[in-house]
Amino acid sequence: MGPTSPSRAIDAPSFSTSRFRAEREADWIAFDLLLTKLEKKGAAALSSDELLQLPLLYRATLSSLSIARATSLDKALLGHLEALSIRGYFLVYGVRESRLDRLRRFFLYDWPAAVRSVWKETIVIALVILLGALTSYSLVASNPEWYFNFVPEGLSGGRDPRATAEFLQSTLGHGKAAAGDEKSGMHVFATYLFTHNSRVSILSFALGFAFGVPTLMLEYYQGIGIGAMMAVFAGKGLGLDFGGWLFIHGTTELFAAALSGAAGLRIGTAVVFPGARGRLQAAADAGRTAGKVMVGVILMLFVAGLLEGFGRTMITDTALRYAIGSLMLLLWIAYYYMPRRKDVT
Amino acid sequence: MSAAADAKQRAAEAKRIRQFITPEGIDLELKIASSGLRMGALMIDLIAMTLVLIILSLLAIWLSPAVRPDVMIIVWMLGAFLLRTFWFIGFELGSRAATPGKRMMGIRVVARDGGRLTADAVVARNLIRELELFLPLMMLGMGAVENMVSAWTAIAGLIWSLTLSLFLLFNRDRMRMGDLIAGTWVVMAQRVKLDADIATTDERPGEIRFAEAELAVYGIFELQELERVLRSNDPRAMREVADAIRGKIGRPIAEEDDLFLLSYYRQLKARLERKLLFGKRREDKYASD
Asked: Model-level pTM greater than 0.80?
């Protein structure tokens, strides 16, 4: 009770947590400052001296954390050291290359490699889209009433079996009528198509984990829309022109759609047949490949949107449309499937 | 608080901790972020994105005074899509691996296997968000607007899509569907300021000395609660705690609360840390001394 407590002699041990803290605190503060600088300005802003200091201070902090956990009961101190170590760990081990290098590697190797690795799924999805197109084409060709079951009123914009051949021609950008009218709405329509198509693609990827079934359905449905339209135009003798109208951006867009479906299917099959890995691990592995494919898909859809919004309104010659469409297709195929010397999967 | 409630609280805390060993062999003990924090972060991000869109449209009006309605439609449609898709991806690719909302909540994304967070993982986890956020809305919209499906189909669709959206409530690691696919976790990454050391060993004038028996009643949990009260510096809480301790050790009220508590804290800490050095860790007052 009084000042003559029996524990007086051992009250001042040679090791005390306060002394420990006083000795090491400067390192922690220096590490904290260095991390803040690194977070704000990036590794390029650090001098070579500071870069050499970084791992030393990191290890000093981690060792302090170990000692503090074993000896100290100061919760504020423990919390600070833990947070600092976590922050330090992810900065020291997290970033190994600059964003520019990452971007370069993505375009040169990662993206085509990811697309190449889902080639089987891509073929399956392409066949599914084709099957959808054939189904609706044959149905609408035999009975035009089917059309209204396949294409929603809002998307068709008057392009249905009741329309005249002249009107249909004008929607392809050939005739004189209605062309001036449509110009102002064209950008809106193109934007709508880009965002709509991107969303459908993202959905068909994201739904992949449900064993790939919704993905297949979505892709089939995409094919159905195309086949139905095709049947309407072909019925009025405009099949070739419609083909050109579709081809100029369609090769890029449908390729992107097939790839997004392939990405979804990859995840679906990984979940169903994980092989020797755990199901979670298999899903995560497939997800990473599919993620790379999806970045590419969005870029492709953007290109498709540009071709659709601008290329198609400016170029009205059917042969030229076919040429551009084929050229784009060849470009994509060459970019993805040409063998590379240095390959990172 | 009763012993059972204490134990329960600590068990819940311990459940959120995941082993995460650095190459140096130290366990960082990452804590999984709670679903509430995740929700809060999402809300902040959505609000921020809406604000950006509003600013963009104001900019569009300012740049072209004779604004055409189709320009606005493009700004909103394209802007909303690009923001929605790249806001999360862009921010999570940064060195802090967190959107502004996540930063405010003090959480971040990490790779589950302890490796670095790759760009494809970030992309995969965020594209799945499209599904989780907008599928339930789409299902609702489909049922309400198009009249294509019966109410029951719409409800079934909604429930199905909600189980996807609320997936993180149904697993221990609070993984979204996207986290599952990308192999990521969202963990606590708060910054903790280094608070002053309130237990420096040098003697203060007027410090109260406590006997061994008076210090022997509490363990580490109580010590750290006492530390929290001392750091928060709230006189009412300090009075309550001081009274509880006085009652426990049978000491008449004689000193100022802060001086009493600080002295008690210092000596209890010194005592428990000394025991810790000898390998005895007394978790709380219920454990044997």
From this structure: no
Whether residues A256 and A129 fall in one domain? yes
pLDDT digits (tens, 9 = 90+) for A177-226: 344 444 455 566 667 767 777 778 888 887 887 788 888 888 888 888 88
**Interatomic CA distance for residues A183 and A190, integer angstroms:** 11
What does the pLDDT read at residue A2? 41
A50 touches chain B (CB under 8 A): no
In this prediction, residue A168 carries a pLDDT of 73
Distance between CA atoms of B61 and B284, rounded to whole angstroms? Answer: 64
Please spell the DSSP secondary structure of A78-111, one letter per residue. HHHHHHHHHHHHHHHHH--S-HHHHHHHIIIIIH
**Which residue, A92, A127, A151, sits at the end of a domain?**
A92
Task: Decide if pLDDT at A10 tops 70.
Answer: no
Q: Give me the number of domains chain A comprises.
A: 2
Nearest beta carbon to residue B131 from set A65, A207, A292: A207
Q: How many beta-carbon pairs under 8 angstroms link A with B?
A: 205
Does A299 share its domain with A160? yes
- Tens-digit pLDDT profile for residues B50-77: 999 888 888 877 877 665 666 677 777 7
Which region among A250-264, B128-142, B168-182 has the lowest average model confidence (pLDDT)?
B128-142
| Model pLDDT, residue A196 | 75
Residue pointed to by tokens 């100290």: A72
Taking each helix axis from N to C terminus, what angle separates A239-272 and A318-337, rounded to the nearest 10 degrees? 20
Mutate to test the interface with A, among B73, B149, B192 (most CBs of A within 10 A): B192
Same domain for A109 and A87, yes or no, is: no
* Residue A9 belongs to some domain of the structure: no
A196 in the same domain as A69: no
Q: Which of B116, B212, B214 sits opposite A6 (nearest CB)?
A: B212
What B232-237 contacts at long range (C-beta under 8 Å, 24+ apart), as own/partner pairs, is none
- Note whether A154 contacts B: Cβ–Cβ < 8 A: no
Q: Among partner residues B108, B181, B200, which is closest to A283 by beta-carbon distance?
A: B181
